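Two records follow; treat each independently.
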Amino acid sequence: MTEPKHEPPMHLPAFFMKQKLTLMVNRYEIRGVGPDGGPGDLIAFAQQKRMAFKEQVTFYSDEQRTRAVFSFKARQVIDLSSGYDVYDERGDAIGFFRKDFGKSLLRSTFHLNGPHGLDAIGQERNQAIAIIRRFIELPFTFHFDFVDQAGRPVMHVDRQFSMRDRYQVQVPDPRLDFRLAAAMTVALDALMGR
């Protein structure tokens, strides 16, 4: 297991993520918060071929993909429960996440780990919606709350009501690096299994 680097986290207290669907690829835009409180400037952009999610997702500084700024990669391609390492632009590990498939049968649950003692569990807030989503393909709003071992909030991910996947993310814990939070948000969208 690669140990995360212990440099100060690149903390961003809030951001937005939007998925753009195309025929062959999934595109994810990560945007800051604009002056009006809505989506602002592009911070990172990821493009991933359909059915290739289990391998690696790379985030770039722009839509032309001129400079890679961070990525995440599966530890094992076949075993989805093995988890994903998140890397900075130099290829140094900055965190890890994995889906807890046993607990996710009724309510999706994820483990999120990073430097500075960050150890959090994220779970869908509403179990009734979690169960309904498994049987009905509708653009439900849903919420994920990540808390640390002491029960303090680490990250909140809110899917907005829309035919396209749009998320608003709040990160009250300054230990959570923006790159790890963004990677976890994209993974929530891709791994949820509707």
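The next record belongs to a different protein.
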Amino acid sequence: MNLVLWIIQILLAAVFAGVGFAKLTQPKDKLRELMRWVDPVPPTQVKALGTVELLAALGLVLPPLTDIATVLTPLAALGLVIVMVGGILVHLRDMKTQDTAEGRRTEIQGAITCAVLLLLAAVVAWGRFGPYSF
């Protein structure tokens, strides 16, 4: 199970590092092409979310690799659970405001993606807080 948790941690770290880095470095107009939810959100909030995601990605892998403050790993996973709850709510809200079938399908896919990432982060939080802590 420890190996499975490591695989999930690395996968989550890669996903959130990539998405967080994009939110930090790309202008809002460029992000809008892939992330329709950024349209009504102020750019500072998008950058703040990118910062949180990037820090969580680092928190998933660096503490156990360096054996420093390893409690940060399950805390980072728990933080991602909270972020993904917010992501699901945003996608469900946007689904109600879309008037095209394509818009609805995109938002459902976004909510499902957030739900899968939430589940993976919850597994890491459970495992690293509980029976497979460092």
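Discussion point: The chain has a mean pLDDT of 91. How would you locate this feature using only the token line?
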